[in-house]
Specification:
Layout (H helix, E strand, L loop, with lengths): L14 H4 L6 E6 L14 H9 L13 H5 L1 E3 L9 H16 L4 E6 L4 H13 L3 E6 L19 H6 L4 E9 L4 H9 L4 E5 H6 L3 H8 L3 E7 L21 H14 L1 E8 L8 H20 L5
Parallel strand pairs: 1-2, 1-3, 3-8, 4-5, 4-7, 5-6, 7-8
Length: about 300
Amino acid sequence: MRDLYDAGAFLGLDPAHSDFAGARVLVLPIPFEATVSYGAGTAHGPAAILAASQQVELYDREFDAEPALDYGVHTLPAVELPSDPQQAVARIAQAVTTAAATTKLVVGLGGEHTVSVGFARGLLDAVGGPLTVLQIDAHADLRAEYDGTPYSHACVARRLLEDARIEQVLQLGIRSVCREEVDFARAHPDRVRLWYAEEIHAGGWQAELIRRVAGKRVFLTLDVDGLDPSIVPATGTPEPDGLSWRETLDILRLSARYGHLVGLDCVELAPQPGLHSADFAVAKLLYKAVSYALRVGPPA
Ligand SMILES: [Mn+2]
């Protein structure tokens, strides 16, 4: 596995823009895969994202700049992980706490969505609560347990909500839920706001999103199956009718403008040979997300 990371630093940045001391961003590969329920391969997600990121243009038209050269991104070694999900979550939390204690922005590369349970805990231990979770996803992940484990990737949001320091989970792009999840969301309207994909497509979601993130510290968890499978088909549990590229950028831009993004992870990319367009889209999306987080301040 190690040699997969010879892909190099995120975005192919030279040492001057990727050394630890000077970077404002830390990329942390977290290749955890244990509870996937359908297609496999998320353990290879971090290496694929890093490899694809070498091809992302540093110049961003939206900013008329090369934002990464301003903020600098250091890529950490991959977290060494046990196969037991509960132990892995604890190990991830520890790694994220250490990284976030630097006050740099930590960007986790999964791995399956269970990674986010550890990521959020680590972030909370480093920066404290309360925290708003912004979840882009096809799935609500609100089940109490799945396949006999509470640490399944189908239970991530439910696990996060068990921590009182998590104020609310905002879910956007959802297409697939079960009865239990719908009932849970309806029973907790203050802590769970679920926007189905058709609500995003119809527009009009922006005002409430702004109201819910305004002034809040936000942890962004980006499940790549939230996007339409035409953009990212390489994922274990794809669902049709996902968010468009522009809708996703609108969500990230608004959230970063009105909220304060304190950490993010990207999960569920399961790279497939011949589908490098998916890896590239995810790498480019992460670059956008980081640039929004660091360059788009609160409204004047
Ligand atoms: Mn999902």
